[in-house]
Structure formats: structure tokens, C-alpha cells
Amino acid sequence: MNRLLAVIRAILNRAHKEWEWIDSVPFIRLLPEPKKRIRWLTQGQAIRLIQELPPHLAEMVKFSLSTGLRESNVTRLQWSQIDMQRRCAWIHADQAKARKSIAVPLNEESLAVIRRQIGQHDTYVFSYQGKPVLNANTKAWRHALERAGIEDFRWHDLRHTWASWHVQNGTPLNILQELGGWSEPTMVQRYAHLSPGHLAEYADNARLGTNLVQQIKKA
């Protein structure tokens, strides 16, 4: 409903400001939306999932957890988008959600995954039985989740997992935004609570003084 209301509001704003068809824009109130929690895996859960997946999907999961790329960017990744010497890949603007090209640095794990795919397909990096894998959300994926004991988890949550791990290991949010190709800082703010390290030095500012603690114990 909110998506439809937003379209109507955009049309009315243009009719008023650009086309001058109407004198004013009526107020349109959007419905309140619940905030969704970020779903991510622990290292142990990720290992269990990978162990339960068939090899071709396990490799794609490892690559996703190493790069944070969306499902479509992984399944449609071509060899022409990989530069092994420079240790990077790139997503073209027409393949990115924000319609902006993304440079993807490749770590040792993602490079190892790519090397294991060499010779499997002439065009696409990831394939199965000689054909490109165009859809990763298959029965094999869902059954692996069940066997691993992981509930309420989508393929896109691998991207959330990648971002969560980054923040937990100290990656600044502005760097994460660039790595993930997000257009707005607000998109990475949802991971901020996973990295309270920058607040640690101030935590003691609210501690009880020694004398006060002793008085409380006596009371």
C-alpha cells in the first residue's frame, strides 16, 4: 500500500512543480511500517549450512559471504567481470540495484572459490552440469537450511550476514557502504548496533563511584 501511495504522491508533486497542472499537493499519509530485524548467521551456522549444500551452491554461498553480492550478481557473474591479478570484480551499473557500478575487492576466500570454477563454463563463473546457475533459491537450498536447523533465512540474508560480520570485526560504516554499493548511508545504519566498540570508552562515565558502592552495600 505504501509503495502505491508513494507513486501517487510523486505524480502529484510533479503535476504541481513541473507541469503546473494543480495549485497544491494534497497531504498523503503513509501507513506505519514495522521495522524488520536484521537476519544473519553466526560463523558456526554458516559452516553447517555450507556442509549441507550441494557443492555448486556451497561455492556460491562462500562467494556471497566473502563479497556481499546480491543473488543476481552472483548467479550472473561472468568471467569478463573478473580480474584475478588485480584481485577484483565489478558489477556493471545496469546490474546494480542503485544503478551505479560497483568495484568488488576479492579476498583469499573468494579468489579460491573462483579458481575452483575455472574450466566449468566459458562465460559464467558459476555453473552446474555445464549450465549457468540462474536461480540459487532452489529446493536444494531450502532442504539444506532445514538440515542445518536454520529457520527464517533467505538467500538475500547472506548479504546481511556479510555486512554484519564486517561491522562486528570493526569495518567503519562509511567503508561498508562503499563495499556494498549502497547509495544512502541510512542503508548501513541498520548494522550500527552490531559494533558498540566506538562507545566502549564512554561506558565507564556512568559507573557508580567506589564510595557510593560501599554505602549501598552497608545500607
TrEMBL record:
One of its GO terms (molecular function) is DNA binding. PROSITE patterns: TYR_RECOMBINASE. InterPro entries: DNA_brk_join_enz, Integrase-like_cat_sf, Integrase_catalytic, Tyrosine_recombinase_XerCD. It comes from the Bacteria. GO terms for biological process: DNA integration; DNA recombination. It holds the Pfam family Phage_integrase. Residues 36-204 form the Tyr recombinase domain. Keywords: DNA integration, DNA recombination. This is Tyr recombinase domain-containing protein.
